[in-house]
Amino acid sequence: MTLMLKPGTEWTTLYQRCREIAPEAFAADRVYNHWGGRWRADGEPRLAVSPVDGTEIAGPPMVGADTAEAAVRAAADQHRAWRVTPLEERRARVRATVEAWSEHRDTLALALVWEIGKPWRLARQDVDRAVSGVEWYLEQIEEMMEGRAPLEGPVSNIASWNYPMSVLTHAMCVQALAGNAAIAKTPTDGGLVCLTLAVALAAREGLPFTLVSGGGRDLSPVLVRSPEIGCVSFIGGRDTGGQVATDLADLGKPHILEQEGLNCWGVWDYSDWDTFAGQVRKTFDYAKQRCTAYPRFIVQRSLFDRFLGAYLPAVASVRFGHPLAVASAQDDLPELDFGPLINAAKAKDLAAQVSEAIAGGAVPLYRGSPEDALLLPGQNTDAYVAPVSLLEPPRSSPLFHAEPFGPADSIVLVDTEAELLAAMNASNGALVSTISTDDPDLGARLAAEVRAFKVGINKPRSRGDRDEMFGGWGASWRGAFVGGKLLVHAVSRGPVGERPPGNFPDYTLVPREHS
């Protein structure tokens, strides 16, 4: 069967649609930055290609530190006006923004497909979660802000590329509801056009948003240490997050630093393999390129044969490929678990890690083939990686102790509960973990000793929506916890002497309802 790109989904068609929706933000040959209340043709556009098939797409207009400093000062001016804007007006402008996002949902989602390789279902889901999440805060914000005030300066957002809508722009709207201007640095790996369109629709409604592109080395010091910044919100890896934490150490700024951890799934005294098989396939959504993915399974040795009986067919059923490939023009877009990785460099790096782990003694239990992928004839496939599963990666391998951020599972066998816990806590803190067991009392006891912020018993955990709190232990999180009212409290001022729930150098505090 020969596949084709679904008509109407071409990159050129998408970009023209963005230009028609927001001509102030998109030129024929470049995308603009937005600061000081205006769209600006500053910065040098960087070459960018889509991970989907290597098509050249719009690249981020990279500015330097001087321009970033000017943008921060302008955002501070906007912040001073916005923080005294009545809540009802702030609410009306944010509501108009999410209504505009809903109107242009499919354009925003198609940008996510081309820019970061999300399958259509997950791309639309990202937009929908941004809309529904902000709508929930619109109804709750008055109570959440009772007795509180906006920060002294704008919130600086430095986020990863994988959830531009449901995490980044969602947070920016909540920050605006709380009375703050919001600054965002475009992730250099992808999401420029989606973010630019979302910010353009918000700026039309009067929201005080700033969006600039630039390298982390140039912009991060400005977006973290500038005296005008009221709070820093970071999502990314531990190396960069550690540098941000170091830069913040002597400033006393409110901060939210979400960092990676190795999220583990433990299996002990368990027998519901049909349920488990369905859960395994779901872990491959978006090629495990999310902070709450599960790339490590810790399995009781005596259950390994039954584990494999459920696990291997589930992995073999995973569907991946070009998110816009169809057999005929009338077909719906394909139902895929994942498309490409974020770029060819990441795919090459992950393939090298897998090869090195096998050379070091890991046993390949499953290796998919690119021939299993849904692809267009002759298309570029540099960013595509098939699912792979390794037994007992060597301790010297990055796959043993770090999150791969790709469709690569590692499996470790254990003989005692103590070994199970040690293996699940290999990365000094994680965001989520799960324990599959037939004994709920045992599950609860083990969960209490796992250093993950959320631990599921016989079910996976995620960031959660609306009023569900989110954070992390150890090196996976620094600063205030978020979710529900805590997201609002993290970007607003409460009573003098308030100690926000979070993971700080001098204390860790969890609200009673979570403990």
TrEMBL record:
This is Aldehyde dehydrogenase family protein. Residues 48-485 form the Aldehyde dehydrogenase domain. Pfam families: Aldedh (PF00171). Keywords: Oxidoreductase.
